Amino acid sequence: MNGHDRSATPAALTPDHHADVSGGWLRASVFGAMDGLVTNISLIAGVGGGGVSRHTIVLTGVAGLIAGAISMGLGEYTSVRTQNEQVAHEIAKERQELERHPAEEAEELAAAWIRRGLPEQLAREVAETVGRNLDEAVRVHAQEEMGVDPTEVPNPWLAAVSSFVCFSIGAMFPLITFLLGFSQLWLGLAVGGVGLFAAGALFARFTARSWLLNGLRQLLLGALAAAATYLVGTLIGVATS
């Protein structure tokens, strides 16, 4: 049985048996949350290591949250939109080639399938059939030649909002204790560490990775960044005291 349930319905017969990987929100969310956590944990560790007051830590952390969230949102929107515009430009070139040289384009597509092991005659017949529908030909050629589907490009607004919101949430974690009136640096960093572990564990559910290992990996990476900035903050604080 190899651990599989043979009585289960085949995935091919189940609608939407794959997750949506084209929307652009997951990468932006993961990047935003992790960047928010690591950035503000490191920022707070650095200024806290320099011996500043709770008020200064809060001010620094809030400023880092706002600036980082806006920067992440704008960056995601610009990068995704630029990528989409590049894809659109290449698709337009491909459409033009299909309109001008349909036979040569069909031969190019058939050659690609033949290299993959499809019988020569069948590959040419399928390529010629696809070429009779210009829109479908454009889509198939784009997938074969560029590895993209022009009907499934990421949404720049979705990526921007996902990044902005998740960065803000992540950056808030190490600030929570200071906003509640506590002044201990270790407590704020500990809460930030909990956020790192939780985010890593949560995002692991979208993959086959262990939630425990993923959470610990993010915690370790964040701890290394915080240790580095804490050391710098301590050294600068001592030097200027």
Automatic annotation (TrEMBL):
GO cellular component: endomembrane system
Record-linked PANTHER family: FE(2+)/MN(2+) TRANSPORTER PCL1 (PTHR31851)
Protein location: Endomembrane system
Membrane topology: Multi-pass membrane protein
InterPro entries the UniProt entry points to: Ccc1_fam
Transmembrane segments: 157-180, 186-207, 219-239
Record's keyword annotation contains DNA damage: no
Record's keyword terms, sorted: Membrane, Transmembrane, Transmembrane helix
Biological process, per Gene Ontology: intracellular manganese ion homeostasis
The keyword Membrane is assigned to this record: yes
GO molecular function terms noted in the UniProt entry: manganese ion transmembrane transporter activity
Descriptive protein name: Membrane protein
Organism: Actinocatenispora comari
Protein origin, superkingdom: Bacteria
